[in-house]
Specification:
Layout lengths: L4 H12 L24 E13 L2 E4 L4 E4 L2 E2 L14 H12 L3 E6 L10 E7 L5 H7 L4 E2 L9 H13 L24 E8 L2 E5 L2 E5 L9 E4 L1 H9 L11 E10 L3 E4 L6 E3 L3
Parallel strand pairs: 3-6, 11-13
Antiparallel strand pairs: 1-2, 1-5, 2-3, 4-7, 5-6, 8-12, 9-10, 10-11, 12-13, 12-14
Helix pairs in contact: 1-2, 3-4
């Protein structure tokens, strides 16, 4: 009898992860896990046919799904090396859902520019895939303005995994950056934490500066439309001088390293 292709794929993932045993997903069905956030709209139910990475899967009808709200370790591609734990994270997703039925759940945007579905995924046994990966430390929160529903729940899961050094949070590669070191992180997506030296509003745009030399020091920028969204979320950018904050996004050079904050889920106001 020919081998089940699902089992062959899981075996390849296990071998690539260093021989770790792959446990059938059904064996974990009774284990409690995080609940899917409220407010999402239920979409398609299909069977998973392939795992491209921990956060990207293909369904049997050809639809490619990019897990909304999270970023998992990236496999090797286009000549760039794999990120640490990319194989292990993909193996976890494969264990949970390859060959099984899943249901998609949407926030506002349902497709990205490559026509991938941007969805939260629940597996036929009720496991919420994003929550599971975050809880295991195999993904980090990565939202966009119209896919940020449930961000607070996801940030809580990420925070707990990080405090327990689970998965990626035991790897220096994924560490939270301090503002002074971000010159070494240009053209990459990072989480940056520090104390705001000066919060300024210039022609409607907010700037959270982390040093006195705005031409060289790290800055979070919040343009006028996002700043109004921050205000509605209870965050007055102008009042953040002296506050310790944690933000996330793409680091680019503009008078020093900078991250554009486009929606409130990108910024956490921390307790001293």
């Amino acid at each position: 009898m020919a081998a089940d292709p699902t089992r062959r794929t899981l075996l390849r993932l296990a071998l690539a992860a260093g021989g770790a045993a792959i446990v059938p997903a059904g064996a974990a069905a009774g284990r409690p896990g995080p609940s899917l956030p409220d407010g999402l709209s239920q979409g398609e139910t299909r069977r998973v046919s392939a795992i491209l990475s921990a956060d990207t899967i293909d369904l049997e009808d050809g639809l490619r799904v990019r897990l909304a709200g999270v970023q998992a370790p990236v496999p090797a591609r286009h000549g760039a090396p794999a990120w640490p734990l990319s194989v292990e994270a993909a193996a976890e997703t494969g264990t949970l859902c390859l060959g099984r039925g899943v249901t998609l759940h949407y926030a506002d945007d349902r497709r990205d520019r490559w026509q991938r579905a941007l969805a939260h995924v629940t597996i036929e046994d009720g496991v919420w895939l994003q929550g599971h990966l975050l809880q295991r430390g195999l993904a980090r929160v990565y939202t966009w303005p119209r896919t940020a529903l449930g961000a607070r729940t996801m940030l809580d899961l990420e925070r707990t995994a990080r405090s327990n050094r689970r998965g990626i949070w035991s790897e220096r590669f994924y560490r939270i950056r301090n503002p002074a070191e971000t010159w070494g992180d240009l053209d990459s997506w990072q989480i940056v934490e520090g104390r705001v030296a000066d919060a300024a509003i210039v022609r409607g745009t907010g700037y959270l500066n982390f040093g006195l030399d705005w031409r060289n020091d790290f800055t979070f920028r919040i343009e006028s439309d996002p700043r109004r969204a921050f205000k509605r979320a209870g965050i007055d950018v102008a009042d953040l001088t002296g506050r310790r904050v944690r933000g996330r996004g793409w680091v680019f050079p503009t008078n020093g390293p900078m991250i554009d904050l486009t929606h409130p889920a990108q910024l956490e106001i921390l307790e001293d």
